[in-house]
Amino acid sequence: MALPKKNKSNISNSSFITCKKLFEELDWDIADNESSLFQKFLKRYDKLETKEQKDVFLDLTRKYTIVELEDYLPLLKNILISKYFKENTDRQSILLFPLIPAKAIQDIKSSSFLIYLFFHYSFLHNDILNKKKFSVICNYQKLFIEANHKNHKNLLLIDDYIGSGQTAIESLENIFQVVDSKNHSFTKITILCLYINELGLKKLHEYINSNNLEVDIIYYKKTKYSIGGCENILENINLKEPYNGHGGCGDLITLIRTPNNTIPLFHKFIPKNPAPFHRNSK
Question: How far apart are CA 239 and CA 218, in angstroms?
Answer without folding.
Answer: 34
